[in-house]
Write a structure and sequence with these properties.
The complex is a heterotrimer of chains A (216), B (152) and C (145).
Chain A lengths: L1 E6 L11 H13 L6 E7 L9 H7 L2 E10 L2 E6 L3 H6 L5 E3 L1 H10 L3 E4 L9 H6 L9 E6 L6 H12 L2 E5 L11 E5 L6 H10 L2 E5 L7
Parallel strand pairs in A: 1-2, 2-3, 3-5, 7-8
Antiparallel strand pairs in A: 1-9, 3-4, 4-6, 9-10
Chain B lengths: L17 E7 L2 H11 L4 H4 L16 H4 L14 E11 L8 E16 L2 E13 L5 E12 L6
Antiparallel strand pairs in B: 1-3, 2-5, 3-4, 4-5
Chain C lengths: L15 E7 L3 H11 L11 H6 L9 H13 L6 E9 L9 E13 L2 E11 L5 E10 L5
Antiparallel strand pairs in C: 1-3, 2-5, 3-4, 4-5
Classes of the chains: A alpha/beta (216), B mainly beta (152), C alpha+beta (145).
Chain lengths: 216, 152, 145
C-alpha cells in the first residue's frame, strides 16, 4: 500500500490545506491513474490526541493517521505512533529538542522518530553527521521529500547509502495539490499508527514518487 | 530561546487594537499600483479615457498595510526581518476618492526552525474601513525575524 | 483573459489556471515603492548594496508586490471570477529581472453559504521550478442560469 508519511494541514502554521481537501484531492489523483491509500498528518510541534479522522477516512476509502514533526537540535524529526506516555515525556512545542533524547523516548514508548528531509540545507541531519554527530539508534530516515530543493536529494541519498539506512517518502504537503508527490510503499497493509510503527521497524517498505504508482 | 513561552517581547500588546492611520485613495495611486504590478484587467485600469470608472485591484490595500507604523513589540531575537506570509480578504470595492481607516492588532508570536535556523514569527491583523464604515479589506501579515546567514 | 465569462459548471477539480510568465523589472519595483510612500530609500527593494548589507543575495521584490502578482492568476483567469481571499506564504525571496511563472490549480469546488466557490492552490516558480511563493486563493464564480 502507498502512504504519504509527511503532510501538514492548517493545524500547522504554514499550511493552507484542510484535511478534508486532502482527502478529496486523492480522488483526483486516483482518477488520473495514481495510487494513494492514505496519509499521515504530521503537524509541526504538536499532536492532538482528540482529533479523530475515522469518519473521513471511511467515507473517502483512505487510511488517515496522525503523527507529528518536531524541531530538534539535529533537524526536524517525524514521529509516528505518538502515545500519551510519549507526550508526557517530551514537550512537543519546544524548538531545539535534544534529538537523541527524542529518539530514545520514542523507542521506549512504542513510537519511532524518523529524521525528516535529512538533506535539507541548514537543518538536515546530513549536516550534523558531517560535523561528527552520531546516528544512535536511528535506522530509518526520510529519503524522498516533496519539498526538496536542488541538491538536497543528493545529500539525503548519500547519508542513506553511507550508513545503510532505510528510507521513507512523504510529500511534506502544505498545499492540497502537493499531497502524494512522494510516498512510502509498504509490502504489508497498515490500519493504524501501531501497525505503521511495526512496519517501519520491520523495514519492508521503500520510498516512491507519485509517478511510480501508476496502475498498469 | 527554545519555546514560545521564552520569546522575549511585549506581551501586553497581544490582541489590543491600535488605530494606525487614515489613507486617502486616488485614481493615480490605483493606476500606478496596476502599472507597476503588470495588472491589465479593464476593471482596474479602465479604458484609457480618464473618465471611466475603475476599482482597486484586490490586494491594493497592501500599499497601506505594508507601510503602517505598528507598535514596537520589543522582540529580542534576530537581526533581520522579512515578510513571511499574508492573507488578504477583499470585502468591498475601493474606488478613487475613498478614505480608508485602519486598525491593527498583534495576533500571535511564535518560534520555529527552518532552513534559516531558528526563527520567530509575529502575526498582525489589520482591518481597513472606508468613509462609510464598511470594512473593505482584512489583512493578516506574518513577519519573521532570524539571524542573517554567512552564505547569503 | 477569456472574453466570455467562465461559470461554476465549466470548472473541475484539477483544472489548471495560467500560467502567467513574468519578470519584475527594477523600474517596476521603484514605481511600486513610490506608491507605497513613506519608505526610506535606498532599500533592500531597490538597491543591491542595501539588500546585501541585510544579508540578502540582491534586491528583492516586495512581498506586497508578489501578492499583487499572485492575485493576477485569478483576475487574469476570467472576468467572472471574484477573488474572496488570497492566503500566501513567502518561501524564498523573489529577485528582480528574473523569469517567474505564476500558475494555479483548482483543488476544491462547492457551494458555500449559498455561493458557488472554488479553491485554488497558487504558486510562483523561478526558472528552476523552485516555488518561491505558494498559497491558496478562494474564488466565487457564478453558476449558469
Amino acid at each position: 500500500m502507498f502512504l504519504d508519511l509527511h503532510t501538514h494541514s492548517v493545524a500547522s502554521d504554514d499550511s493552507r490545506a484542510e484535511v478534508g481537501q486532502f482527502a478529496r484531492w486523492t480522488g483526483v489523483l486516483r482518477r488520473k491513474g495514481y495510487r494513494i491509500d492514505g496519509f499521515v498528518l504530521t503537524e509541526h510541534r504538536q499532536f492532538d490526541l482528540d482529533k479523530d479522522y475515522s469518519a473521513l477516512a471511511k467515507s473517502s476509502g483512505l487510511i488517515i493517521l496522525k503523527g507529528s514533526e518536531l524541531d530538534t537540535d539535529r533537524g526536524h524529526f517525524l514521529v509516528y505512533g505518538v502515545t500519551e506516555e510519549l507526550l508526557s515525556r517530551v514537550d512537543f512545542t519546544v524548538v531545539g529538542l535534544d534529538a537523541a533524547h527524542l529518539v530514545a523516548e520514542a523507542d521506549a514508548c512504542g513510537a519511532i522518530a524518523v529524521p525528516a528531509h535529512p538533506g535539507r540545507f541548514g537543518i538536515g541531519l546530513y549536516e550534523y553527521v558531517e560535523q561528527g554527530a552520531g546516528l544512535g539508534s536511528i535506522s530509518v530516515v526520510e529519503r524522498l521529500n516533496g519539498s526538496n530543493r536542488p541538491g538536497e536529494q543528493e545529500r539525503a541519498d548519500a547519508l542513506i547509502e553511507s550508513h545503510a539506512l532505510r528510507g521513507t517518502g512523504g510529500s511534506d504537503a502544505h498545499l492540497v495539490s502537493a499531497i502524494g508527490a512522494c510516498m512510502t510503499s509498504f509490502d504489508n497493509d497498515i490500519a493504524d499508527e501501531a501497525e505503521l510503527v511495526r512496519e517501519l521497524r520491520a523495514g519492508a517498505f521503500r520510498a516512491v514518487r507519485l509517478e511510480d504508482t501508476t496502475q498498469g | 530561546m527554545t519555546s514560545d513561552q521564552e520569546i522575549k517581547f511585549d506581551r501586553s500588546l497581544l490582541g489590543v487594537e491600535h488605530p494606525v492611520g487614515t489613507f486617502p485613495v486616488t485614481r493615480e495611486m490605483m493606476l500606478a499600483f496596476s502599472r507597476s504590478t503588470g495588472e491589465t484587467s479593464p476593471a482596474y485600469v479602465g479604458d484609457g479615457s480618464g473618465s471611466d470608472k475603475i476599482v482597486a485591484p484586490p490586494t491594493f490595500c497592501n500599499i497601506f498595510a505594508s507601510s503602517i507604523t505598528r507598535p514596537d513589540i520589543k522582540l529580542e531575537f534576530g537581526d533581520i526581518g522579512l515578510f513571511a506570509g499574508q492573507s488578504i480578504e477583499p470585502r468591498a470595492p475601493v474606488a478613487p476618492g475613498d478614505t480608508l481607516t485602519a486598525t491593527t492588532k498583534l495576533k500571535d508570536v511564535y518560534a520555529k526552525t527552518g532552513r534559516s535556523g531558528t526563527m520567530v514569527f509575529a502575526v498582525w491583523q489589520t482591518s481597513f474601513a472606508n468613509q462609510k464604515g464598511e470594512t473593505v479589506a482584512l489583512v493578516e501579515e506574518s513577519y519573521v525575524r532570524r539571524n542573517r546567514r554567512a552564505q547569503e | 483573459m477569456p472574453n466570455s465569462p467562465l461559470y461554476f459548471e465549466d470548472v473541475e477539480m484539477g483544472d489548471e489556471v495560467g500560467p502567467i510568465e513574468r519578470s519584475v523589472t527594477t523600474g517596476q519595483v521603484r514605481e511600486f515603492v513610490q506608491v507605497w510612500g513613506a519608505r526610506s530609500e535606498p532599500s533592500r527593494f531597490t538597491d543591491p548594496d542595501a539588500a546585501k548589507a541585510e544579508g540578502l543575495p540582491g534586491a528583492i521584490v516586495p512581498g506586497a508586490m508578489s501578492m499583487a502578482l499572485m492575485s493576477q492568476i485569478i483576475t487574469g483567469w476570467s472576468p467572472s471570477m471574484v477573488l474572496r481571499k488570497l492566503d500566501i506564504v513567502f518561501r524564498q525571496t523573489v529577485p528582480h529581472n528574473a523569469p517567474l511563472k505564476l500558475q494555479g490549480i483548482v483543488t476544491d469546488k462547492g457551494v458555500v453559504d449559498g455561493r458557488p466557490q472554488l479553491e485554488c492552490d497558487v504558486f510562483m516558480e523561478d526558472a528552476e521550478g523552485t516555488r518561491l511563493v505558494i498559497g491558496k486563493a478562494t474564488v466565487t464564480v457564478p453558476a449558469r442560469g
